[in-house]
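Case study.
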Amino acid sequence: MSFIVKCIDCGHTAPYFPTSVNCPRCNSQWREAQYDYETLAKTLPLQLPDRPFDLWRYRELLPVRSPNPAITLGEGGTPLVQAVNLGMMLGCPNIFIKDERQGPTASFKDRQAAVTIAALKEAGITEMVVASTGNVAIAYSAYAARAGIKLWAFVTSLVPAVKMREIALYGSQVIKVTGSYDQAKQVAAEFARQRSLYQDMGARTTTSVEAMKTISYEIAEQLTAVFGPVTPSEGRQPAWRTPDWYIQAISGGMGPLGVAKGFAELKQMGLIDGIPAIGVIQAEGCAPMVEAWKQGQETAKPVSSPRTHIETLATGDPGRSYTFLRRIVDDSHGAFESVSDEEAFRAMHVLAKMEGISAEPAAAVAFAGLFKLVRAGVVKPTDTVVINCTGHTMPPERLVLGDGWARNVVLPSRVMEETPQEGLLAALSRVAPDRFPRIAIVDDTTEARLLIRRILQSQGNFTIFEASDGKEALQLIEREVPDLIILDLMMPELDGFAVLDALKAKPETANIPVIVSTAKELTADEKDRLKGRIQSLMQKGDFMNDEFLDEVRALIS
Ligand SMILES: *Cc1c(COP(=O)(O)O)cnc(C)c1O
Ligand SMILES: [Zn+2]
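After joint prediction, the assembly is written out as follows.
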């Protein structure tokens, strides 16, 4: 047999069977799969080129004896997409999104379900119990349906109804527990115990952690395809690339536990040189791990009633997973961070509008966390970052979209028959106003103009004009009379100060509000020259701050 499980507590090793969950020597449930890394280091790189890009391409490193093609749904092998616009916005060009929405049930739980169900099927299991905040139960239900395994899914009553219906559609029995996720887990465990059914044990489930590590293998292969292999040090093979950061939103923390193990294995096999910093993000209303880490504590104090709308991330008691994750984060020089629901919802909009990626709020938590880490200087502008986009919002949640996201066109039938053209125009004029607020962006660098344009467009409807120097700006402003001017100070020839002088000298333009953007600290003298003549002064990196958009809205209304 090519893999074993080793007890984390007493070091005892034993053959792996999915149904024997306790260490035979010390009874611990914390055990880790191990493989013949020395042999695999030589054989795997030769085998990979002939294999399809999916999770089973690493089958020798997974605890399944023979992968079952009848169960697979094409799991793993998700794209790594460069986030060009987010990169520009954050001043951090090498941001890559591991698009786990593209799994069979649209979250990264598909990996876990595919490997676990394959192992259970192999072991002859026909019925199982799982507690879930939604996505685990959806993924397990899909694979259990294919494998002919009966699934009992315990979910909290806060799980969105659409998710519950999807679980039921796959034929699983949904049991709604009115209580916290931690309580739902207890009820599920008791149910499984009474009926002697196999139950999923979260981060203690070997197959789940092992499945998650395939994310790190894929990232290393994909980054190598983008940047080329790392130049080998003397006498070594060229190594695969690793990012400087791997960032993910966490609930119980299974994802990063698996991913960190994957990178450690690649290192052990000599396929990579370094391990990325691991950044894990929680929702503020349920962030026991972040709080413990920031206070330097070894164990996390459970949150008994989570205060977040983001149900997917509502593990209040991380238990021992925190201890393991803390070590991983510290050893890798990573970080724990939390974000508010509000920040996550905003990030969800930014991600959709800038990158065309619709993520569920839980996944948006990771992006909001990235924004925070970049602004705090923890993630450096030169760092290569891979961020796990773990779940798709399908359908987009009402909470996030608010009112007015769609407009109706109702065509009165009588008018349409008599004067169809007029009827149509009248109806369309109600769809959108004839005139949007008009904003002029004056900046000599193309990227800066593009960035400001994108940020504005991502938040509302504006008519935007651009000028790339002072002279062009004055002509433009006179011609178009915008409602707001965003003005760069440092421009060759006619600079921002001169433009401002010219605008203030003319009654037609003297009262147009101006936001000045500047890349450098201003001298006292320069600040004096702006005093009373502009509405706001922004540092160039500040454009993503919420104040910028609040300011814009206030000035044009
Ligand atoms: C499960 C899940 C998480 C949290 O993952 P863990 O690594 O298990 O903490 C984050 N986002 C989404 C969308 C999820 O489904
Ligand atoms: Zn043991």
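Observations recorded in class. The chain is about 40% helix and 15% strand. The mean pLDDT is 91. We will return to this complex in the next lecture.
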